[in-house]
Amino acid sequence: MESATAVFAGAAFALFGAALLVWTGARTIQRAPVALGVSPVAATALATLFGVLFLVLGVWCLTRI
């Protein structure tokens, strides 16, 4: 039962991290704001950081099965 939870959590984290990285990249290429009311450099850096963090967390969960 615990492996099913790890698979779900790993897939959810990895999917969210990958989607966040793709979305951030697309917004950056289009020169559109990543977050409204925030410095563009800070928003891009934080979104990229959290995207990578969630992707790594998802992969880590999937390796713990």
Layout of strands and helices, then pairs:
Layout lengths: L1 H28 L10 H24 L2
Can I get a quick summary?
This protein has 65 residues and is an all-alpha fold. Helix content is 80%, strand content 0%.
* Amino-to-carboxy terminus distance: 11 Å
Helix content: over 70%
Q: What series of H and E elements makes up the topology?
A: HH
Q: Which range does the strand content fall in?
A: under 5%
Secondary-structure content class = mainly alpha
- Supply Rg: 14 Å
Mean pLDDT: 94
Cα shape: elongated
What is the tally of helical segments? Answer: 2
- Low-pLDDT ranges: none
Most strands sheet: none
Overall number of strands: 0
Task: Write up this protein.
- This protein is mainly alpha-helical and 65 residues long.
- The protein is 80% helix and 0% strand.
- The protein contains two helices and no strands.
- The protein has helices spanning 2-29, 40-63.
- The protein is elongated and about 40 Å long.
- The termini are close together.
Q: Any key phrases for this structure?
A:
mainly alpha, 65 residues, single chain
